[in-house]
Amino acid sequence: MLNRRTFVTASTAMFACPRIGRTAEPLTLWGPPAAPSIILAQAIADGLLKPFASGASFKAWKTPDEMRAGLSSGNMTAVVVPSNVAANLYNRGLGVRLANVMTRGLLYVVAPSGTVTDIASLKGMRVAVPFRNDMPDLIFRRLLAAAGLHPSDIAIEYSGTPPEAVQLLISGRVNAALLTEPASTGSIMRAKWTAWKNLEHAIDCQKVWTRATGSATIPQAGLAVTDKLTAQIGADGIVALQQALETAVTAVIKDPSAAAGLAAPEFGLPATVIERSIEYSNLVVARATTARADLTTLFDVLAKEDPRIIGGKQPDNGFFAL
After folding, report:
1. Model pLDDT for residues 196-240, shown as the tens digit of each residue
2. PROSITE patterns per the record (predicted)?
3. Which of 40, 160, 276, 303 is least surrounded by CB atoms within 10 angstroms?
4. If you write DSSP's letter for every residue of 75-93 in order, what string do you get?
5. How many angstroms separate the Cα of 266 from the Cα of each of 60, 254, 302?
6. Angstrom distance (rounded) from CA 138 to CA 180
7. 3-state secondary structure of 100
């Protein structure tokens, strides 16, 4: 029997239901062939996007230029990006906001065991660095400065992609390489398989960053969402997407082997490499507002010499989708 109390309760529940829309076409989650994208692959495999997506898939973008073009054109609507790129596009009025941070930092200097002890010890060495003037390079240069070094104190060999940097290291053309995960772990395992040399995570850049800036993490990358996607699924849909990724990251950490198998086809790496790399990837799915203090520090440090890196200024409150 429907009495007044049950009517009020039912009515309240009805009006409190999230207003989640659905995408008009299958939703593609884009990300680099780097550790945060493992979370995307897991979320899709587990069907966590079904409440708001008519279908879903994960695709890897290969270069920052490809990613920027996809966001600028509207062809990519949910993309894992370096956090400074999200700030830059938002400040330029391109309708891109940051929903979350998906790693506390996954950047390492890899070198033959015992040859590199800290940033200062890189002086006079040749170091491979991928993606000139993008996030890894920008952070590395700030860490050099904090150690009292100038980029001219080392010989930086820039490469177009992390695999190219790995090849420079494996071939012995450089003394060390600045790599993200899973490329850093992949280089170590590859050297072991080929009996070339023993490589190691010689410098944990996250720890160096903390000492240099006082910030607990490097909020290096997160999920950027466009106004186009928000218009389709609504603000509650963006919350549902966040919750799906929160569930997915728990599954990744609980069963790295299974998660690695899901991501391997798009990464173009053996699942064993991806599985091992998760340990070093500091994966999280933290709402952007929760990570705001660390993001602000990162943006301040990166923009000190060139504010254009973040689009000229610290992003305002509208930048934070969640």
Report:
1. 789 999 999 999 999 999 999 999 999 999 999 999 999 999 999
2. PROKAR_LIPOPROTEIN
3. 160
4. S-SEEEEEHHHHHHHHHTT
5. 6, 21, 30
6. 13
7. strand
